[in-house]
Design brief:
The protein is α+β, with helices and mostly antiparallel strands. The chain has helices spanning 46-53, 76-83, 101-112, 117-130, 135-138; strands at residues 6-17, 20-31, 61-66, 69-70. The protein has two domains: 6-83, Rossmann fold (3-Layer(aba) Sandwich); 101-138, no CATH class. The chain has a four-stranded antiparallel beta sheet with strand order 2-1-3-4, covered by helices on one side.
Length: 141
């Protein structure tokens, strides 16, 4: 069994709201292991594209595949499994201002339950060290 090198594939996607077409005939391929930035003017379709990639919208035509799975035909349970395998970084960082950096990093680990509670702190400290932050700085709000 071969591994598909493409993480995300949009093929001839069309989407719009009422009479307004936002995306028309969009085809994109995003290889695994790459960081991708969507850049464009206001109203150019960036948010709509992300909503399609997250499975929050279904294209009116064409297809969206993530890890080789067509999102338009995914059951809710399967879509949830696909979403656990990737993440989206929001515009302007989108950290919760009421939480410290430490707690912002720990939040998804705790909420998703993917890490045993006793490993959350060591894992957060490791992530902080990987980007050159000291633990004492990460506790400040």
């Amino acid at each position: 069994m071969s591994v598909n090198p493409e993480l995300l594939v949009l093929d001839q996607v069309r989407f719009g709201y009422r009479e307004r077409v936002i995306l028309d005939g969009v085809s994109l391929r995003f290889p695994r292991g790459r960081v991708v930035a969507l850049i464009g003017g206001s109203g150019s379709g960036k948010t709509t594209l992300l909503r399609l990639l997250l499975g929050l919208e279904v294209p009116q035509a064409g297809s969206v595949k993530i890890f080789g799975h067509p999102l338009g035909r995914c059951a809710a349970r399967d879509l949830e499994r696909v979403r656990y395998r990737w993440g989206v970084l929001f515009q302007n960082g989108a950290l919760f201002s009421a939480l410290s950096v430490f707690d912002n990093i720990a939040l998804p680990l705790r909420e998703l339950g993917s890490v045993p509670p006793d490993l959350v702190k060591p894992l957060v400290l490791l992530k902080l060290a990987q980007v050159g932050l000291r633990p004492e700085d990460a506790l400040k709000r």
